[in-house]
Amino acid sequence: MTAQLACYDEDVPVAGTFRVELEGESGPVEVAIVRDEDGELHAISDICSHGAVSLSDGEVEGCSIECWLHGSRFDLRTGKPLGPPAVKPVPVYPVTVDGQRVLVDVDVPL
C-alpha cells in the first residue's frame, strides 16, 4: 500500500492532534496526526504502548505528545518514550503534504 489521504492541513491545529483510522496491509490502523509547536506535521500510532489509550487526547508540547492517562511522553519523530511509565516506543509513519492534503503511509513505519 502507498501513502493515503489522512486529513487536510487545516484539520490539525498548532500544538494539536487529529485522529484518523487508515487502512493498512493488516487492517485498520489508528493514527494521530500531530502538529508540533513549530508547525511541523507528524503521524504517530494513536495507541499508547503503556496504557492502550488514545494519544490524540493528550497534550502536545514541543515535539512530543503526552498520554493523558498516565503521563508518558513520546517523541513525535521517533515514537520513543521520553519518560515512564511507558518503556516501549510507538510506531511513527512517514507524512507527505501535497498542497492541503496530508498523506500518511502506515505500511512503512519509520
Automatic annotation (TrEMBL):
Keywords: 2Fe-2S, Iron, Iron-sulfur, Metal-binding. The keyword DNA-binding does not apply. PROSITE patterns: RIESKE (PS51296). It comes from Cellulomonas biazotea. The keyword Iron applies. This is (2Fe-2S)-binding protein. CDD domains: Rieske_RO_ferredoxin. InterPro entries: Rieske_2Fe-2S, Rieske_2Fe-2S_sf. Residues 4-104 form the Rieske domain. GO terms for molecular function: 2 iron, 2 sulfur cluster binding; metal ion binding; monooxygenase activity; oxidoreductase activity, acting on paired donors, with incorporation or reduction of molecular oxygen.
